[in-house]
Amino acid sequence: MDELVNQDLIAPDKAPQGGSESDPLAVKAWLAHSATTVLPRGELLETFHGQHPRTLFVKSLKARSSVLDVGAGDGALSIFRRWPRPARQDLKIYAYSLEKGQNFDDYDGYELSDWNVQKPFADRTFDAIFCSHFVEHIADPVAFITWMASKLSENGRVYIEWPSAYALTSPSNQLLAEWGFSGLTGNYFDDDTHRDPLPDRGVLEATLRKLGFDINASGIVSMPLFEDELLAYSRHAGDRVALQFAYWLKTRWCQYLVATLG
Predict the structure, then answer these.
(1) What is the pLDDT of residues 106-142, one digit of tens each?
(2) How many C-beta atoms lie closer than 10 Å to residue 149's C-beta?
(3) At what angle are helices 141-150 and 201-210 packed, to 10 degrees?
(4) What is the CA radius of gyration of the chain?
(5) DSSP state of 129
(6) Considering the entire predicted model, what is its pTM?
(7) H-run or E-run covering 27
(8) So what's the pLDDT on residue 139?
């Protein structure tokens, strides 16, 4: 196990060369264009979230699974237990974060601490661990994955989502604000809590395999239909969250992986 906790394994993803995904002029033109939509507005958010990799992960867990939400933020995962369909009230979901989020009382339990000082839930294991936008904030993602393996039951599953290399070259918050789109998370380095280098997906996958995991799915969060759909919806409803999701999809900002402990 000691060989896994090796800083040489935390090699940076290289920023992509070429392409329009994060080219400032292309992104600016896309934000300003008249998006054509095909989905009914009333169904859009449910359809989008229902097809997102993170929601599919939760909805497809085995019956009565226990789930740990690491870096739980405001506690949005508790909402996805009941929405969109199918409702998964059979799941037991627990949160871990530095501070209590607004929806934490909807979890089956939660613990608060600084990851670098005290690890959570010392006395139990889980059937699944969900980790969205956490690994880019910690000093040693490899050590975190090793810890995850120790907290999973037999055939336990993990979902990890974090920024991709495209986020390194996407337009900055300052540039987006100049275009009239303030309040978005634009570029990886706009958040001073993000670690440099960006955790490399290949390194994380190699670490998981060494720990006995099978990689079930891995790649960029790509949902082309919803780029324009969410952009148009954000204009109609004044929904900044929908605009953020649209921007992340268009710029290929997020990556993810799903793995099962063999």
Answers:
(1) 999 999 999 988 999 999 999 999 999 999 999 999 9
(2) 21
(3) 30
(4) 18
(5) E
(6) 0.92
(7) helix 24-32
(8) 93
Distance separating alpha carbons of residues 11 and 17, to the nearest angstrom: 18
90 phi, psi to nearest 5 deg: -75, -20
Computed over every residue of the chain, the mean pLDDT equals 92
Here the tokens at position 146 are 């090793």
Q: Assign 112 to helix, strand or coil.
A: strand
User: What is the per-residue pLDDT across 51-106, written as a single tens digit (0 to 9) for each?
Assistant: 999 999 999 999 999 999 999 999 999 999 999 999 999 999 999 999 999 999 99
For the chain, give percent helix, strand, coil, nearest 5.
40, 20, 45
> What does the pLDDT average to over 44-50?
97
In angstroms, the CA 8 to CA 147 distance is: 18
Distance of CA 199 to the CA centre of its chain: 13
Nearest 5°: the CA angle 108, 114, 117 is: 120
Give the CA angle between residues 23, 187, 176 to the nearest 5°. Answer: 70
Q: What is the pLDDT of residue 116?
A: 86
Give me the residues paired with residue 213 across strands.
Answer: 261
What pLDDT sits at residue 10? 39
Give the integer Cα–Cα distance in Å for 69 and 57: 12
Token pair belonging to 119: 């690890």
H-helix or E-strand spanning residue 203: helix 201-210
Cα–Cα distance for residue pair 5/239, rounded to 1 Å: 42
The full set of domains in the chain, from first to last, is 2-261 (3.40.50.150)
- What is the pLDDT confidence band of residue 13, given thresholds at 50, 70 and 90? low
The amino acid present at 175, given as its one-letter code, is L
C-alpha angle 135-231-18 in degrees, rounded to nearest 5: 60
CA 208, chain centre distance (Å): 17
